[in-house]
Write a structure and sequence with these properties.
The chain is of the alpha/beta class. 36% of the residues lie in helices and 26% in strands. The strands form two sheets. Strands 3-2-1-4-5-6 form a six-stranded parallel beta sheet, with helices on both faces. The protein has a five-stranded antiparallel beta sheet with strand order 7-8-11-9-10. Strand 7 and strand 8 form a beta hairpin. The relative contact order is 0.10.
């Protein structure tokens, strides 16, 4: 089965990072930006790198953009260019369009005009940093919706040696432990009587307000 082909439009820090990692994973990547210098910076990493104006429909069409499985619009501060590029990609029949948004309003507009997925890298990174500052045991925080999230929490020192039954997270915080990571292995049916060790990671799902309570309760002093 052929691997997916990706096109990345906008080669700032975010776009160039996405292009680099996809290339390193062995995918075919077309990198596009108006800035020739940015194009040259990634030319040795990606499959193809071209300088083009993504708001020029004919220029985009000439790149054969509709043949790519996924197009990521990673344009930086120019919201108008981001929206126009997304409209052009939609009109050209691109299969999947993923767009970086600057703020919530920008994201709403992108969704309305046909973006298949809108991402907020700055906001999401800020969220992860904030959670880590509050509780260094929080390794990952993934928003499922406005109300629910999943967190990966390294077992805090104060609960090492205790088990899930004793912690009773479901009753105390209305959150569910989905799995326990141990030695690189994911156990999705952890035994409630098995003691937790300092290297274990709990994968927990719940409402954001309840997860915040949980994080604060087990924040390291």
């Amino acid at each position: 089965m052929d691997k997916k082909q990706f096109a990345i439009i906008g080669l700032g820090r975010f776009g160039s990072s996405v292009a680099k990692f996809l290339s390193e994973m062995g995918y075919e990547v077309l990198a596009i930006d108006e800035n020739e210098e940015l194009v040259q910076d990634v030319a040795h990493i990606v499959t193809h790198a071209v300088s083009a104006d993504s708001t020029d429909e004919e220029a985009v069409r000439a790149l054969g953009i509709r043949n790519f499985d996924v197009v990521v619009v990673a344009i930086g501060q120019d919201i108008q260019a981001s929206i126009l590029t997304t409209l052009i990609l939609k009109d050209l029949g691109v299969k999947q369009i993923i767009v970086k948004a600057q703020n919530e309003l920008h994201g709403k507009v992108l969704s309305k005009i046909g973006a298949d997925k809108v991402i907020f890298p700055e906001r999401d990174m800020g969220l992860r940093v904030a959670h880590h500052l509050v509780s260094p045991n929080i390794l990952e925080h993934i928003e499922l919706s406005n109300d629910y999230s999943i967190v990966e929490m390294k077992v805090p020192s104060q609960i090492v040696g205790r088990n899930l039954k004793q912690l009773d997270i479901r009753v105390k915080y209305n959150c569910n432990v989905l799995a326990v990571k141990r030695d690189g292995e994911m156990n999705i049916t952890p035994h409630p009587d098995e003691s937790l060790n300092s290297e274990d990671v709990l994968v927990i799902v719940g409402r954001n307000d309840q997860l915040n309570r949980l994080e604060q309760a087990y924040a390291e002093p």
